[in-house]
Amino acid sequence: MTETEYDRMTAGKLYYSPDKDLVARRAATRKLVTAYNQTDDGAGQKALLDQLIDCPSHDAYIEPTIRMDYAKNIHIGKQFYANYDCIFLDVAPITIGDNVMFAPRVGVYTAGHPISYDVRERDLEYGHPITIGSHVWVGGDVTICPGVTIGSDVVIGAGSVVTHDIPDHVIAVGNPARVLRKIDDTTRATWAAEEAAYHRETGR
């Protein structure tokens, strides 16, 4: 069977971005994304999001506005939430675990362009997959670059540019993002005390 440009794209190979099939797929996604961004009907938004992304639990919520290339290459676990103006360039798979939160203007960019301009100017592109574990909070205006894996139980500080893999149980910040410190038992105890105080003070 002949390998299509879509096959090449999702496999991380060089592909021709103006390919007619790819253009049609992007146009179809753009129509759904535009409809999603323009509706304030909750049930309607949910139905559109179910058409766009792969979320077996059907409980993801993404605040408008959003941007996506193909959408079907976005695989999301349970209880995902993204705030305003997030961008998903999903020419390669984007895989996100359970209980992940995005602040506003997070960019998840699997797309890449050849360093050599003569290749780049012939509309050849590539993509490398991005994987994000479970129990992750990504701060505002964070950029996640092609090929990155972010572990579970991670916080990425606002404004960070994630160019390399981030391990489990850490806070990472900066450009490029680097591990600031671990999330350990002391951290958990501190926040457990804060939660206990909240319940005492509110009676909830």
Automatic annotation (TrEMBL):
The Maltose/galactoside acetyltransferase domain, residue ranges: 6-57
Domain of life (superkingdom): Bacteria
Protein name per Swiss-Prot or TrEMBL: Acetyltransferase
Family affiliation: Belongs to the transferase hexapeptide repeat family.
Pfam families to which the protein is assigned, alphabetical: Hexapep, Mac
SUPFAM superfamilies on file: Trimeric LpxA-like enzymes
A GO molecular-function descriptor: acyltransferase activity
Keywords from the UniProt entry: Acyltransferase, Repeat, Transferase
EC number(s) recorded for this UniProt protein: 2.3.1.-
InterPro entries per the UniProt record, alphabetical: Hexapep, Hexapep_transf_CS, LacA-like, Mac_dom, Trimer_LpxA-like_sf
Organism phylogeny: Bacteria, Bacillati, Bacillota, Bacilli, Lactobacillales
SMART domains linked: Mac (SM01266)
UniProt entry tagged with the keyword Transferase: yes
Entry keyword Cell membrane: no
